Amino acid sequence: MAETSHGTGGLTFDKSKRAWPNELNIFIALILIICIFEALGQLLPYMNGQSLLFDTKGRFDSIFNEARIKIIILQVSIIGIIALGVTQVIIAGGIDLSSGSIVGASAMIAMSFAQTELVNGNPNPKAIFGPWAMDLPAIIPVIVGLLCGMLAGIINGVLIAYTRIPPFIATLGMMVSARGVAKWWSRGNPISFPTEDYAWIGSGMMPVIWFVLLAVLFHIILRYTVYGKHTYAIGSNEDAARMSGIKVARHKVLVYTIAGMLASFAAIILSAKNLTAQSGMGLVYELDAIAMAVIGGVSLAGGRGSIIGTCLGMLIFGVIISGFTYLKLDAFYQEMVKGFIIVAAVVLDQWRQKKAAAKT
Amino acid sequence: MKKTLLVVGLTALMSTAAVAQELGASIARFDDNFLTVMRNGMTDHAESLDGVSLQVEDANDDIGRQIDQVKNFVAAGVDGIIVNIVDTSAGAAVSEAAGDTPLVYVNREPDNVNELPPTQAFVASNEIESGTLEAFQICRNLRAAGKAGGAKGYLMNGQLSNQAAVQRSKDVHDVIGMDMCNFMTLIDEQTANWSRDEAQSLMTNWLSAGEEFDFVIANNDEMAIGAIQAMKAAGIDMAAVEVGGVDATQDALVAMQAGELDVTVFQDAFGQGRGSVDTAIALSKGEEVDSKVYIPFKLVTPDNIDSFLDKN
Predict the structure, then answer these.
(1) CATH of region B128-266
(2) A207: alpha, beta or left, given left = phi > 0 and alpha = psi -120 to 50?
(3) Taking the model in full, what pTM does it have?
(4) A274 and B197: CB-CB below 8 Å?
(5) Interchain proximity B39–A188, CB inside 8 Å
């Protein structure tokens, strides 16, 4: 600590102090978890030497079990889209507990504009509105859904930025209220049978394609744009950010609005994928999304983290879910291990930071 | 202006005073499809009866909150309480919270169902029927398809803490244990928490193992539909796989019409809701009521689907 700094004001680049990128640690953890599953697959007698990621039955052209690799990503990509929004919220020093409920409310509202008039030649048994809202072009429910998320996000942001209540409380309020909206909208009834165009949004591997597009976009935004730099600056030191001329309040509203819109876009994909919207949709998605970000090295103290880290955190989730089904182990164990990994990730990260701080 | 308001207020007061029967209901979850149909049955029926008012509360899947709601109803002096219990093992606590106020359990069977005091009753369908009807029909279909030499398949469980899920899965195991159906074997069983989305992911995970299978039995229709969507996405011919669910929801009947779902079981949600209101009223009037009122399950297949289309 007492070491005198080298160079001009200690600001020169010192290669020895360059941190081992955190993303690499998470990547190693991911590989380790995969290895554990592969080893168990070989060791457990009832598994008959099956492999998690590799094709042992000659079913695919490549050496990989393509079907499993696809589902590993597919089953987490929708929550992954929410996690992208949550990542930038946490980097900005906030938290968003409302995303799961925004999914529920947006899915219900969007789906009621996406219904088709005839199901197997009969009138739609789940029709919410009259014929005027039937068979509309898919862009209308998409816009309606995104507007829902935008509105919820703006309310979150304005509450946090201008009334100065903690983000935990503001988004907790939204979490409860938006779930109420989801249940109230159709009095708890599910809304089913969308048009083919709307269903296309969530069909097949489309959720993964949306996720990849958005992940690349937000990686670029957070890394290379003014918006991203301001987000990190506010999360690291809000007062310093304000003094250096960043419009903190306005920026926060923007951050939460984007998070809300991403949650509602996830809702659109989810309802299109399932061909139904139900008021319980997205339950505890907010916690899964936060956990993905945290495992991915996003610091709850703000100012630190990356989209790449969150993507890796998401993949760890996906591997665990598929790994346990592959081992034919029940959901209990899955939850226990998931909880352990979340805590372990943060403990390791804290320890690493302390070590890094001691070095300087 | 003030006078008119006063008059309006007084009339409102008088009209509530005219209500003979005040009922309170606590439902485990407002966002559950089946429970919503049941809840609609309760509210519609209460509205159709003269002098009956019904207040419905959402317990949000929290047993502590549900017990508080029951206590609040007692404190408000309602004539009867209807409880769709969150946790079936907490029956004793709920029964105690109701005290002398008449109490009707609906849909979910509390663990103290055999020790209910005379002021309490249970209205539901007998879960032993549902899983048995479902699995046995799948067994018959498989035999009819010439697979009596051996058939493999998967079982999707509902929420593992839920009595209906546990019972339905046990029924499936019992049917598979019968001589007539012991050609059926389960490759794996896992929970998909009643949810269509989780069932889609679970089925796709199973498919990725690449094992041959002939049937999928789910504890409810939502999960059966999720499994169907996953199989269709993987290009599996739905005519070659027997799929069964429970509930006969609208979505499930549409899937059955499309030839994708083969078996479901109609649980009279509306009837249960209506029955619970009637039973609560009877209890509050001091009438004798059976402590268990069963509303039967009915098997639904493509042959008799038409008579169920407008039910749930």
Answers:
(1) 3.40.50.2300
(2) alpha
(3) 0.80
(4) yes
(5) yes
pLDDT in tens, A159-180: 999 998 999 999 999 999 999 9
C-alpha distances out from residue B147 to B174, B178, B236, Å: 19, 16, 18
- For residue range B4-14, list pLDDT tens digits in order: 555 444 444 44
**Contact by Cβ (8 Å): A291, A83:** no
**Chain segment B117-129, per-residue pLDDT in tens:** 999 999 988 888 9
Q: Which residues of B touch A267 (CB under 8 A)?
A: none
Contacts of B235 (CB under 8 A, 6+ apart): none
Give the three-state DSSP class for A155: helix
- Bridge partner list, A187: none
Whole-angstrom Cα distance, residue B108 to residue B27?
10
C-alpha–C-alpha distance, residues A288 and A15, integer Å: 36
Backbone angles phi, psi at A62, to 5 degrees: -90, 180
Interface of A with B in 295-354 (CB under 8 A): 321-322, 325-326, 328, 330-332
> In this structure, are residues A258 and A228 in contact, taking their beta carbons and an 8 Å threshold?
no
pLDDT value, residue A11 = 52
CATH 3.90.110.10 fits B2-124+269-294, yes or no: no
% pLDDT > 90, chain B: 69
Tell me which chain A residues have a C-beta less than 8 angstroms from the C-beta of B205: 68, 71, 75, 321-322, 325-326
